[in-house]
């Protein structure tokens, strides 16, 4: 924590001491365009971007009804919409249990069939469809809870950073306190006690989101502290512009870029946490196809008899999170040329 | 301000955070819909009289602030509360289960530091060469993989397929060998290590990946410092520069991150203990949650938070020990 | 003055290979340093002074690389290339190996003092420890002797309580005190040549004066040669014996210090001298140099100074002058690279003047038409015009 403070001090003597509002705006825009150009050139960032785009595409199209998903996923989509996302009330149709052969191996092994390329689960459901559907839960939970953390953190961080003094002290102590309890533990406690013992993915979304407010609040605050010192903010304040408007119009836009980078990386972290929650039984509930939940079932009884059940969802998590991490890293490199490759 | 005074100062600073943690745990457990006794009984039909008796016995019929005050005064005296469900003091229950978790977390850190620091230094030294690319891929995969899945994969490969390492439980080196059915200390300790390897790697991989990234970045930055150029200009061999001149200041952020990551590591222990069936605090927490044993849940949350806070204080003090600027800055 | 120079640099070229192109940071400079003299390397920031001085130790960092020229120190070859059998340039067999550079040259023979005393000392080690390490390494002394020597040197450079300060960390020293430590460090290794890279730029004027006096004093006592890199003509006047003026990677004028000040030959040197505040002039008389120095990645055609030169004529945009000897003073040559001088017979006097010296285009390659129209626009130079 000592380091955070000293890093802040380093940033404070604003480099744009003489910039006025117009200049600043131009610079921000040029900065963004420059950033995007660099991301486009950077190979790793591009790979990350494509992975994220593909996963988002899959998640989005797996969410539509069975007719469209048939177009998208071909023959394997017979149960497609059956276990659709439970966050919103979605018309669901339960898959006929045990219709396929239970625990069928993947297509490239003896006994596998092409109609179930990744094999089937213990209830005979097509595993490929379930893994594809898992992207829905992971990605939407990742995005929604990151959004909660981002919005909450922006409000707390900008207020704390802008006003400083006692408000800052109190808010930052609160943030530090939340930070102290292991996130997974805090989220489980939250989910279980708030839901009265019947966990649900919606509680997980809110719980994860709330838990990550401190992380965003810290970043926003440090950005705000450096922006606050700039001359044009002083000028706006001297001209009698309301604090709320200064924060909204100047401080937040100027703090935005690093926060977006962080949010991208945070989506990966969130997906990781939600997978852990589901693995412990406090995230998505059966029969919702969620990667963590699938691993929970695989770990319980099928680690010896059908190792594929353990492998596919984990690989899916790995690829998805890696996509967000690569993309976030690429953005970060582009925004912070200090340590570029 | 000397190191001693700085230590005192940091410890005092930790107190408000500890109070904050107690408020959060208390609030979560008490402001939840439904009262704890009913929650615990999980809808069983019990007559109102009994519930009121239980509440009175554990002071649950008093207003919130009184209950919090009782809880706080208990905490200060080292009393973490009493598990109604298990009919035992929370502190006793936790002491029984703390050992495996601490063993697991500490070994994971040892594993992470022992791999991350040399690899990070190597990557910085061979920047943009194959060794660097490999280390960056390892780091990327490490931060992108769920620890529990790594655990499952390790079990499948090393326990199920190869059959060379055990897949569940720990052997506690502090117990007498006879308790684990071993004939001597050597066998006992070898068994402890064999049981520890897989969970240690599973829990430590994320830490390793994070630390390796930081180590690489810090070393690259450190190698660009003017004092490193100066050392080169005075004929200091590159090895000495890597191991001494650039190395020491590059470790400062590592220390901070080791402290801050403690909370991720403790959270990860819950998952890893589940995967490897280890009876530590993580399992205890899951059991308590399943039984809605809210006193025990509060106790565990409080202790995990406290371990983190103390961990951060310790790392801050070691930081001050390595970086002379920290204590000096406060004097000015 | 002995006849063999301590250090001889010939046609040194150092380039940086960046994504956007090759930066010719040092582009064929030649100079000598004799025993016991202080040689100045002067120019604006970006002229390549620091790169040149780091090249002398072969410590140019990637993507930079020495691509040509010869550096000789006391008869040993620090850098040289030869043509291989296949026509490619390769390292000369006499050139010192990296290990030999480290063990025999760096610190031991040539030491450095950097510009920023705040960044030059490692914050996590004691000042004494760093001093002792370098002394131990470069003078083969035992740890305890090196410590005694370090304390002696700290006293020598005017640090009070050296025994106590020895144990302290850099952040406990002021900027001037740190610079004294760095001077102590350089002298303590007993080198024959010290490269001082803008060592007083980061300091207050009063402290700067003290440091210059100290160096003057110690230089006489230890008879060490110095290469003094600076952008400040005042410092040059105070401390240097001979001066090299650098502009965009080239040495444009080279002369003993008095000769340079009183018989200035190159318009750039003149401009540098005119921009220097002096007690015998008012602020109005100060003439800042027009424009900014172009980037070394795309230097102007012809004479690199022509876009900013008040005396530039059409010929200057075409002819790239190499430095030639125009005079001799105190047994040293006075070289200048300006076609104005008679030794360059390229028709300067007949050439059309370019009157828009003020219109400093950052890069070269303008067409004559553009240039003409700009001149026709009649740009008034911002300093109120120069009478010449």
Provide structural commentary.
Chain A: Pfam families: BPD_transp_1 (PF00528). Chain A: Keywords: Cell membrane, Membrane, Transmembrane, Transmembrane helix, Transport. The complex is a heterotrimer of chains A (341), B (332) and C (388). With 341 residues, chain A is an all-alpha fold. Chain A has helices at residues 2-11, 21-41, 43-62, 66-73, 127-163, 165-180, 183-194, 201-211, 213-228, 231-238, 243-280, 291-301, 308-335. Chain A has a domain at 41-63 and 127-335: MetI-like (MetI-like fold, Orthogonal Bundle). Chain A contains 13 helices and no strands. In chain A, helix 3 packs across helix 5 (127-163). The longest helix of chain A has 38 residues, at 243-280. Chain A is elongated, with a radius of gyration of 23 Å. The relative contact order of chain A is 0.15. Chain B has a domain at 90-290: Orthogonal Bundle (MetI-like fold). In chain B, 77% of the residues lie in helices and 1% in strands. Chain B contains 14 helices and two strands; from the N terminus they run H-H-H-H-E-E-H-H-H-H-H-H-H-H-H-H. Chain B has a two-stranded antiparallel sheet. In chain B, strand 1 (82-83) and strand 2 form a beta hairpin. Chain C is built from twelve helices and 14 strands. In chain C, a hairpin with a 2-residue loop joins strand 4 and strand 5 (76-79). The longest helix of chain C is centred in the middle third of the chain and has 18 residues, at 205-222. Chain C is globular, with a radius of gyration of 22 Å. Chain C starts with 6 loop residues before the first strand and ends in a 12-residue tail after the last helix. The model of chain C is unreliable at 357-388 (pLDDT under 50). Chains in contact: A-B, B-C. At the A-B interface, helix 1, helix 6, helix 7, helix 11 and helix 12 of A face helix 1, helix 6, helix 7, helix 8 and helix 10 of B.
